[in-house]
Amino acid sequence: GKHGYPYCIYSLAEGSGDRSNLEIQDHVKKQLIENPAKTGIKASSSLQNNKLTVNASVKASSKGTYDLGVAVIRNNCKPTSESANESIYNNVVVSISENFLYMSKEAFALDADQEKQLTKEIDIQIPDSEKQNYRIVLFTLKEKGGKILIDNGIEISVGGSADYSYN
């Protein structure tokens, strides 16, 4: 923002504007209280021949329509321009599924305690020597009041896994 404060997206329907870190933290806590996660996510990933495969399961605590998005994040990126202000960039999104702004055609309905297994494949070149600089973020989406919200999210390493997490 113009005052040097960070900008944050709380949901896909609302941004923060210019606010201090404390104001953003308070607002995020409020959003988490008002919109508790209805899904849990577990996932594992593997990388072979420049194809990242993510196997995920989504389990719902209540009936609804949900979607699963995937992003690949990289740390320790060197700038590609001589005019860059910093020498190293972290948390750079290098790949993201198309449904980061909306529910996709692959959105699915779940009943309470029902589980859906999904596989996402991403073509990406990640050298073995750089695998530690990458991580995979999986997030579920849900609709509430005509708006799309991020319901839950987890992070795993390339070649790593995570069991169900309800945030």
Topology at a glance:
Blueprint: E1 9-11, E2 14-15, H1 21-34, E3 39-48, E4 51-60, E5 64-74, E6 92-96, E7 108-110, E8 115-123, E9 134-144, E10 147-157, E11 161-165
Task: Describe the protein.
By secondary structure, the protein is mainly β. Helix content is 8%, strand content 48%. Strands 5, 6, 7, 9 and 10 form a 5-stranded antiparallel β-sheet that branches. The protein has a 4-stranded antiparallel β-sheet with strand order 8-4-3-11, with no helix packed on it. Strands 1-2 form a two-stranded antiparallel sheet. A hairpin with a 2-residue loop joins strand 3 and strand 4. It is globular, with a radius of gyration of 17 Å.
Summary of the model, kept short:
Helices cover 8% and strands 48% of the residues. The chain has one helix at 21-34, and strands at residues 9-11, 14-15, 39-48, 51-60, 64-74, 92-96, 108-110, 115-123, 134-144, 147-157, 161-165.
